[in-house]
Amino acid sequence: MLDLTCALSGVTATEDDYADTDDYVGDHTDLPEGWTKITVTMRRGNPAWEAVQEVKELTAMQLLSQIPDESRTPDVTGAVMLQIEAQFAALEARREYERTIVDTQTLYVAPAERVEGLGAEITSLCETLGIDAAMLLPEEEVEEEPEKAEDAPSEDAGEVPEAG
Fold it and tell me: Where are the beta strands (DSSP E) in 69-148?
C-alpha cells in the first residue's frame, strides 16, 4: 500500500481506497481506483560531469604550458591529451559522473469527487498541459468548454448600421 497524497488537494488515500486493490492485475496494482499517477521526467546536464571536463581542460592547459612552443607538435599535444583522458577515465566511468542526469518526480491526484473544487483544479491542470480532462474526471464532471466572448454572437449581430 502506497502512502498517496494528492498533489492538488493534499487529501491522502484511505484504507477504503485500497480495499479492492488486491484484485487488480497488470501494471500499477497499487494505484487505487480513481487516483491518477503523473510522472514527470527531465534530462539535464550533470554539474559533476561538467566540473570534471573543466578540470581536464585546466590540467591540459597547465601541462601544455610547460612544453616549449617549438616542441609542442600535434603528436606531443595528442599524447598529453591521451594521458589526461586516461587519468580521468575511471572517474568518468562512474555513474555519478555521467554526462546527463535524469530526474523523475511522481505526483498523485485524488478522484475529483473526494474534495470540493478538485474537479475544477484538475480541469485547469489538464488545459495547461493539453491533456483531455475526460481521462481524469468522471463523466458528469467533464464540463463543456465555455463559449469564448469573441466567438459569441453579439446582440446587434446581423444589423447593418445606418449610413449617416
Answer: 100-109
Start-to-end C-alpha separation, the chain: 77
Pick from 83, 49, 88: which is nearest to 63 by CA?
Answer: 83
> Residue written as cell 481506497?
17
Distance CA 49, CA 137 (A): 43
What distance in Å separates the CA atoms of residue 36 and residue 31, rounded to the nearest whole number? Answer: 8
Query: Torsions phi, psi of 26, nearest 5?
Result: 85, -155
Block means of pLDDT (10 residues each) for the chain, 164 residues, are 86 83 74 88 96 96 93 94 96 95 94 90 90 78 49 49 52
Q: How many residues does the chain have?
A: 164
Buried b (16+ CB within 10 A) or exposed e, 36-68: beeeeeeeeebebbeebeeebeebbeeeeeeee
Q: Does the reported pTM lie above 0.85?
A: no
